Amino acid sequence: MRLIQAGDLAMLVAEKSKPFILRLQPGKELQTHRGSIRHDDLIGIAWGSQVKSHLDARFLILEPTLRDLLLRIRRRSQIIFPKDIGYILLRLSIGPGTTVIEAGTGSGSLTTALAWSVGREGKVISYDRREDMTDLARSNLERVGLENRVVLHTRDIEEGFDEQDVEALFLDLPRPHLYLSQVIEALRSGGNFGAVLPTTNQVSQLLAELEAHPFALVDVCEISLRFYKPIPARLRPVDRMVAHTGYLVFARKILPASEEEPESNHSPYLEPSE
Q: pTM for this structure?
């Protein structure tokens, strides 16, 4: 049985109430509309325990998942949603030890997920030209204890990236098609490239530029997510669903074709349908 330690990030959940995520510190106290809970009463008990506030309201204490953290991130801009982030991590092959660049830090939703996934040995390098967004992302990373895995740059990527030979690179920018030369300079041959865009005309612009640069296995998709009411006697979809949030574009960097080979406007390598 694993016991809760001082310094752990914990989530307290009450029935029909938003969860509270906090870092446990001796002597501190959580104030809620259902009563207060002392951190000292939580440290040393087992994860999954039920606890009560001073008003006798019952809470469940759990370790927050990555999804829990992302849904409650402090933000000043639109974020990439968990339903998209999961597939992005899969397609970019993000795992322990990976070095990955992202541009368009924003509030740090994807930054947090990347930092969580690369582990202690990996590194996330994130670029944003707005200092206020860099500061917000740093604050969100510090809140969940992942700041040491991320290098934040406040700079326009038109100047290029400082890094080279990285395994993966993701753009969350309005005009990613303008920066493919910079992407090629930073991404290793065979590396994974991805981008998210809200409209089809932006996707078309990116696709045209991908054809003009050494990329293959180009793929475009969108992801919808529908939950069901978990009631055995009347299982059915919930009334609302998260449908379109953005188009995802993925590709692999390849070595340019030799000058002897005929040029083509279309890559002969296609991503198989799933």
A: 0.88
Give the list of residues 6+ apart from residue 80 with CB closer than 8 angstroms, or none: 88, 109, 110, 172, 196, 245, 246
CATH of domain 67-253: 3.40.50.150
Domain locations along the chain: 9-64, 67-253
**Segment 60-83, tens digit of pLDDT:** 999 999 999 998 888 877 789 899
